[in-house]
Amino acid sequence: MPNFIMSYLDSKDAMSPGAAGSQFWALMYVLIIFAGVSVAVICMNWIERKVLAHFQVRLGPMRVGPHGLLQPIADAVKLMIKEDIIPAEADQFVFWVAPLIGLLAAFTVYTVIPFGPSQAVSDMNIGILFMLGVSSLGVLGIVVAGWASNSHYPLIGALRSSAQMVSYEVAMGLAVVSAILMTSLNASGTGTLSMIGIVQAQQQQGVWFLFKFFPLGLIAFAIFAIAMVAEVNRAPFDLAEAESELTAGFHTEYSGLRWSLFMLAEYAAMIAVSSIAVTLWLGGWMRPFLHLLHGPVWEFFFSLFPGLTFGGLAAIAFIGTARMPAHSFFKVQRIGLGVFAALLGFTALLLLVIAVAGRSADGSVAARLNEGIGYVYWFLFKVAVFMYLFIWYRATWPRYRFDQLMRVGWKVLLPISLGVLILTAIVGVIAS
Amino acid sequence: MNPAINSALNSGMAPVATPWFFYALAGLAVASGMAVITRRNAVHSALALIVTLLSVAGLYLMLYAPFVAGVQIIVYAGGIMVLFLFVIMLVNLDRSSKERQFNRMWPVGLAAACALLALFTSVIVKGKALFPDRMVPLAEGSNTQEIAKALYGDAGRMGEYTFAFEIASLLLLVAILGAVIMTKKKI
């Protein structure tokens, strides 16, 4: 085994490849995250259509594959072979570069997302600042796309989007600052901006910042949770692409692959902002009740969750296979779903075996693997809850009017977040 | 490279500040800066300005000032440039692209540029006597904390720049209030 691979794996003190200076593993992590996010976006596409459909008492995609499981792949193929139209009056270069700006901004932030204490590409000293800064560059892609289309609806969509993002960034930033203030409540009195450092601060203080200084942490989190929906242009804040008013808003003139890049960027940005919320307020990679229920038995109990999750998915898939109509038309689908269920079941079995083999924290390979899987699982679990909430919001709430949107941003969220920030500082000084 | 910095780098910090990065970022900053003033289309100019700002942020990173780099991206590239674009998009670009791009003040500009060039040349020639020979870079891992200590003080002590910082923030507050009042018809 080449030295540059093993030198990172052998080091017993866990650190991210960026911190360890291992370029090979940093590249590996980048590739894993890139592939993972792309797959997650494809899954999210299917889940969103299915869940939205069930909210509205429809079936959703049912034709391509069992329960429409292959629909995202069919969509992707369709988008790739579709004609790529650039309007004659459009600004060619800017039109071409706009989706790439959004995509780059959405994917760059993943370098600092802490999936675990060492499961991140790099740990920057300015982690949260970097995330907010780079994700705020994403709006440039939208604005520039709307302008370059040289058409009315995209331009209005772009204007709405830039006004909206600039407004909600303020409240969002203040909510983030009140969480960062909480990281300084330790012996040395210095806080941190590093994403890993923020989760470690929660670990040391033994509480998620959501419950810190109740209800201050909760209010700050609520403000962030509202502002982040506005930040990624999702319903009920999707005025930039309001289909009933602006056709499709800023991406009206886009088609085919370019349009799908916008979608990819939007969903990647959704996962990224959810990760910020999870890191700052929901304890990042920490499993639930870390400080309440401890001991080897509880550790083992919680380490079973990844395997059980996959086991549950496999069971659902098996039930689906068994309930498939007994007609020769469904033969291929039945085999396909059966194989899918078997794959899920195999993954579940593998995870359970790792959980059992690594239950003693003795630093063996199985134990370290078990630990790492636990971190990544709980982080992704919390992010997945947010992703479901995004769909739930979309199915539940009607779209805001633009003046209402501005009023909520400037007259409600901003004063509350300022108040929470001041109160957090006062309570923090009294508490220390 | 300066031997003092070299030894500081070897003791724990990974050397990211290779000359190659500097030349790439500086070249990008200069090239996009030229594009800002030579493009006829104002939106193209704004986009080039964003590239300039981002490459300057990269230069800050190379100087072991990650906090300044992050703030540069948030405030300039993410905030101010979005507002710039917001305004430029509403301007009738067809008319402005037909107007003359440079005015008749170019001799003044040339004189100013020559003066700046002379200043830079003198710094390069006599720089060793003017500036401290070595500057041990702050640890990258505590950069933000060091800035906070300089601005707000440490352990009950007032920081070196606390007073100046507070005065500056008061000035900005006055400016914000002024902007709000000027847009209101009735207070």
What layout of secondary structure does this protein have?
The complex is a heterodimer of chains A (432) and B (187).
Chain A: H1 3-10, H2 17-20, H3 23-55, H4 71-81, H5 92-108, H6 127-148, H7 152-182, H8 195-205, H9 216-231, H10 243-246, H11 256-281, H12 296-303, H13 305-322, H14 331-357, H15 365-396, H16 402-431
Helix pairs in contact in A: 3-11, 3-15, 4-11, 5-6, 5-11, 6-7, 6-11, 7-9, 7-16, 9-11, 9-16, 11-15, 13-14, 14-15
Chain B: H1 3-10, H2 19-38, H3 42-62, H4 66-90, H5 93-98, H6 106-130, H7 143-152, H8 162-183
Structure write-up:
The complex is a heterodimer of chains A (432) and B (187). The mean pLDDT of chain A is 85. Helices cover 69% and strands 0% of the residues of chain A. Chain A has 432 residues and is an all-alpha fold. Chain A has helices spanning 3-10, 17-20, 23-55, 71-81, 92-108, 127-148, 152-182, 195-205, 216-231, 243-246, 256-281, 296-303, 305-322, 331-357, 365-396, 402-431. Chain B has 2 domains: 3-152, NADH-ubiquinone/plastoquinone oxidoreductase chain 6, subunit NuoJ (Four Helix Bundle (Hemerythrin (Met), subunit A), Up-down Bundle); 153-187. Chain B is built from 8 helices and no strands. Chain B has helices spanning 3-10, 19-38, 42-62, 66-90, 93-98, 106-130, 143-152, 162-183. In chain B, helix 2 runs antiparallel to helix 3. The longest helix of chain B has 25 residues, at 66-90. At the A-B interface, helix 6 and helix 7 of A face helix 3, helix 4 and helix 7 of B.
